[in-house]
Please model this.
Amino acid sequence: MARRKSTLQLVDPDRSEAPTRRNRINLFELAYQRIEDLLVNCQLKPGRFLTVQELQSVTGCGRTPVHSAVNRFAADTLIIIRPRHGLQIAPIDLARERLLLGLRRDMERFVIRLAAERASLSHRNQMLHIGRALSERRLTASIDAFNKLDRRIGFIYHRLLPGRTDLTGTIDRHLAILNAIANRHADRAVAASDALIDFMDQMFVEMETGLDPSLLDCSIEPLPGP
Model:
């Protein structure tokens, strides 16, 4: 399989044309957000090889902020830097993600209980506001809009798995968490978090059996025909 070849080169931060530190931070955040949107909605397909220059083209951002964003995504294991081959959008390993779900369950129990017990009035009001916004859009929200809060596995499940376009199940579970935290019901918030993780675990079961593997890694060679 032919792969695009490109190497990452460090940008000299002392170049005279470099923008101010504040502008660099703003441009970096813009590049990061645009790349994140492309990852979450799988417009950058899992497994795809590409170059920094291609990311510059699709985001409209310069080389320095794109390079910085790539380094952060590489640290988060969403982009893989391949020496002599450029970049690869990390394929989705369902077995690994499902294993990490157990860790996420324990971490979220701790974080959610802490939030329910210690959230300020301002934070609780923000959660109520988000909850109202989700409730109002419960029956009409698109997966693209909901993915502002979710990640690319959720996008693949609801967009690419047949018969799973209904978002009400996942929205209701998020609402239960928000409402419990906003009303300082710690035990109820933890139980709601466990219910969401259980829902996600079932998503993995369905994806493992019902998805074309190339949707999780587009670099997989197709099977030869008869």
In short: The chain has nine helices and three strands. Residues 1-19 have pLDDT under 50 and may be disordered. The radius of gyration is 20 Å.
